[in-house]
Design a protein that fits this description.
Layout lengths: L2 H16 L6 E6 L2 E8 L1 H11 L1 H16 L4 H14 L4 H16 L5 E2 L4 E2 L2 H7 L2 H4 L4 H4 L6 E5 L15 E7 L4 H4 L2 E8 L7 E6 L7 E4 L4 E6 L14 H10 L11 H9 L7 E6 L4 E7 L3 E5 L11 E4 L13 H12 L5 H12 L4 E8 L4 E6 L12 E4 H4 L15 E6 L7 E7 L6 E6 L5 E6 L4 E4 L2 E8 L12 E9 L3 E8 L2
Parallel strand pairs: 2-7
Antiparallel strand pairs: 1-2, 3-4, 5-6, 5-14, 6-15, 7-8, 8-9, 9-10, 10-11, 11-12, 12-13, 15-16, 16-17, 18-19, 19-23, 20-21, 20-24, 22-23, 24-25
Amino acid sequence: MNKTKMIVLILMIFSSICFAQVVNGDTLTVDGKKILKVWGTHSERGYAYGYLMAENIKEVFEGYILGSLFFNNATLYTNTRNYFIDNFEVEQKYINESVAMINGIQAAGVSIFCSVLNRDLDEIDILLSNSIVDIAALYEGNFTNRFGCSSFSSWGQNTIQNPELNGQLVITRNMDWTPHPTLLDNHLLIVQFPSEPDEISWLSFTFAGMLGALSAINENGVAAFMNMGNNNYHPNLNTFHPIFLTIRNGIEANDYNGDSQIDPYDIADAISDKYQLSGSIVHSTDETFGIVVECNNENGVEIRDDSDNTIIPEEHLAATNHFRKLYTSVYCYRYANISDSLNANSLMNVERSWNLLGGAAGINTNLHTIEFAPTLNLIKWSTAQTGIPAYQLEPTVFDSQELFTLNVSADPDFQQQFSITSSYPNPFYSSTTISFSVSQIFPFANLEIYNIKGQKIKTLECGKSLSTIADGVSYSISWDGTDNNGNSVVSGVYLYRFETKYESECGKLILLR
């Protein structure tokens, strides 16, 4: 290879390393619960999600979606995937987000190859995973008995005597799903900070790999909690839309229906604008009132409010897995238990709301219990453990304002300033020292060394090699010309990348032996 070609090759590899996509995300753990914050465009958020949760996403897909729901039957899964491709349509933004998630998984070093399917996973697999409750209509016996859920909300005269709520709303929700070990290991609270001007921040109580809104709250205090319906008859074959993404359309939009109000009717109109395959019951609230949106393939959409109550007092709403307006209501013991409790005592406070739902509707397959009081900025969340449903466990208490606060280092408009103060000696014979200064300490900071083929040969942790300077923090670390196995590398050109969670900076080293 001549000298010119060698230089071009080095520059190409150098560019591919240095211009790797920034990860617009951060993770933390509170009381053992994983929280992921992502920001930017749909693609940037999808990439960060995939990158930071790569192993978990792969585990949920292979262990639960493919392993539990499809019994590791590649033919059954492929047939369902083909049905999804032929009959469902999703917005380009969600396709972009799913593609970026796959790219993020790969960038994190996790293989996307699936041995059961004998191929790499792709964006269709991500979107199909987010359509599991829709696909339930195709496999009534296998799927629908796995999904449950219940919720109830109280406001007005029922909360006016409570000095905390003072007439404002509180809602408690039991998310009942299969207590599969993979799901129990992958509870996730994800907070999204969109950069699109027509979208607002929102959060989702979910599992790794889920993009849609199963249990969601936006920054304006609108909540949407989805339950399965009891009628999935689907005689109308039109182009379908996954209900999780439909709800996300309403919860993430900055005033979805354009009526100058961000409220539960944004959720209702988002559902009305799409065509469903299976039956869903969506309980949506803001700080002052609630509605229940009932929909399925056969009868379309009905909105139920407290004026439709027959056995439950007004200014309360309850939802389980049984339609009460879309179809003639049938008996549900959980709904009846909630009714009995409210008719015995209609007054409500935060503590009673939590305890009442657990006592009246708590079941062994309860994976998440969530409580939200918008005017108090109060969110409670408990997650099931092996053999213990969520409602029986002490919840973690969050301040919603804190959850919807993005640290300055994670702000989409924040640009971390790097300064490469030295790389000396360079060229070098036995070792060289590389120094950087940044404006703050990061959760991690690594120095990675690559050969001219673009192969990473050495990772050096920089966290312990820092000192405080006037404008921030100085990192300094030495490389002795060895790889991760301790073997000396040959003479030549090497590239280095200093990386934090938010940025990276690259340079070139020349080793002479």
